[in-house]
Amino acid sequence: MKDDIHPEYRPVVFKDDSTGYTFLTRSTMSSDKVIKWEDGTEYPLVKLDISSSSHPFYTGQQRLVDTAGRVERFRRRYSQRQEKVEGADTKEEGAAASDRPADASTEEGGAGAEQ
After folding, report:
1. Does this model's pTM top 0.90?
2. DSSP state at residue 86
3. Quick one: which H or E segment has residue 32?
4. Among 4, 10, 12, 96, whose CB has the most other CB atoms within 10 angstroms?
5. What is the rounded end-to-end Cα distance, in angstroms, of the chain?
């Protein structure tokens, strides 16, 4: 390794601020704060917002996503949109039906007759 280009790799204490959990490991992180560890030695202290002791995935308190509620919300929105589209289609069909002569749809064998 080249001299003076790599950060110092040393023991550092990390502390989870939300739970107070601390652990000693090696790192290149630096800090102005120090803490006296269980062995009586002072180490640099790096504060964390979240760690394995407070992360929901590791603590088992993970929030489950309400997929059923999302599906229902999608169906409601989609059905409202579909009703608007079908309403517009019905209006167009009504306009097309009014353009046809009245007796053409009632005659047997006519275009509008049911078979």
Report:
1. no
2. H
3. none
4. 12
5. 90
